[in-house]
Sequence to fold (549 residues):
Amino acid sequence: MRQSTRRWTRTLALVAAFAVAGGAFAARTARAGEEDDLQRQIETQRSGVPDLERLDELHAAGDEIVLLKSWLDEAWSLRAKHEYDDVREVLDRALAQAELIRQKIAASKLRAQADKREAALQETRHKIDVTRKALSDTTIKKKALEASSK
Amino acid sequence: MKIARLSGLGCGALVAALVVNAAGCATPPRPRELDAYEALKRSSNTTEASKRSPDLVTSSDKLGAKAHDEWESNDLEESRRDAIMAQIKLKTALALTEQDKLKAKIEKLSGDQAASQEELASVSKDLSAETENLTLLQKYLDARKTADADKARLSLQMTADQQKADAEQQRLSQQLATEQKIAAAQLSLHTAETVDANKYASGEYRAATDMLDKAQAELKDAAFAAAQASADVAKKNADQAVELSKPQYEQAEETSQNHVRDEALAHDAAGIPGVTVRIERRGELQRLVLAASDLFTKKSTALATGHDDVMDSLAALIKKYPSYPVQVVGHTDTRGKSGELLALSAARSQSVFSALVARGVEARRLMTSGMGGDEPIADNHSTAGRAKNNRVEIVFLYH
Fold:
């Protein structure tokens, strides 16, 4: 009985030991997967930064891009410290920042387009003014010639 | 979180340890990010952004409120993070709103641009038309100016030409007048030549010739006034020469003509059969005498028959030379009384007169007379002589 109990205890201890070891292994495996996932996310976002910089032809989101880069660096740093919650939070922020950058770039391009059109409109109106002035001058000159020809 | 936890622990310790020192539990300084978020919210028109992106704005508001609460809860790190996130979402919403506004603006600008382009096209068209009109008007005025200038130039040229033509006409007129005067002088000189002025008025003729030569020389030198004066003098001299020469010339000419006529008369008279012809000269007078014998028998006063041919020839001769006065003179021999012989000779001349008038001779040209036997042409002692003395003479008196 005692032997049986001892055996049982040993088995239990062994199982427990295996369980602990397995749990530790599982936890380490899970942590490693999360770390890889976060690293992938960081790298994915980092790889998107040059595209944003290229898109930002008018440098309308220069500060935001700098901030985005710093946040990605911060995320990388936090990942190295295994502070995954903070990493996720920073990555969420970086995602939102990237979206903000895209919208600001889109807005800047629209603004540039609007400015261009406005300039074109101003130029056209200026041409109209100049043409009207020329028309007026021509009419005056013609009337003067008509008067002098009588 | 650590800071918040530490802060919470510190506060608890402080509250427990130092009740009087409440400064540690007072609201901490607001995070910069929260200030920035709230400043952004204040300065932005979030109403439009809420309509455009309600989720983003709502999320931003919630995050902002949360950050505010966290700050008040002294959870500064969380407050800072949420404030940043709230800013990002609000900025994104604002950027989207701005995009919409810009799109609307671009659309409006496109519409305005199209309208402006249309207006510009219209004004440009008007300007082109007006410029074209002006150009045409300018061309017209230039053309008119050129035409006026041409007209003025032509007018001046015409005036100059007219003056030149007038001068030429005047010169020609003077030349013509001079030539006419010279021609008149030449005519007068020619007239003078026809009356042999060089013979009868040689001084005047020579003077006229000299003056005419002078006039022609002056005409050649275009000295018209002098030429006209010289021509006038030449004409005057020539006229004087004509005046002086004409009577002498006419007399000479008449004499010459009479001589010719006289010779013709004598020649014709010599051709009449049964008639003897002789020319008698008495002083300056000369006469042609045609003596016809045997026209009468014995003491008869009537023409004997057989003498019609003689009478016809005599009548024809008298009519052929109508300028001569003609005498019909009867003659007898000396046998008989003088008074009877005169009457007989006169009657016989009257018979011949009648015969001639009967043949068409004008009576007024004829003068009859009887000389009796006073002018015998032959010996009255012989029969033949007496026959010759019984005669009728037709006497043509020369001028």
In short: Strands of chain B lie at 276-282, 285-293, 326-331, 366-370, 391-397. The radius of gyration of chain B is 80 Å. DSSP finds eleven helices and five strands in chain B.
